[in-house]
Predict the 3D structure of the following.
Amino acid sequence: MLLLLPIAQGREWGWSSLSMIGCFAGAAAMGAVWVLVERQVPEPLVDMRMFAHRPVPSPVPLAAPSAAR
């Protein structure tokens, strides 16, 4: 929610408004907390060790520019 709300309201709120910056900062903080929790629980929703393997993270940066078009 902290990531999607500012993207949806960016034009109305103004991209450099305090609300936008706060929502994006909150999204980054909650993302970091989520990663830390996922690394600690015995049965995570997403196993973070998966991203340490070379074939997994490499398609993500390659797909991002094509998805933006």
Residues 21 and 48 are 27 Å apart (CA to CA). Helices lie at 4-13, 18-40, 59-67. The chain has a mean pLDDT of 81. Residues 18-40 form the longest helix (23 residues).
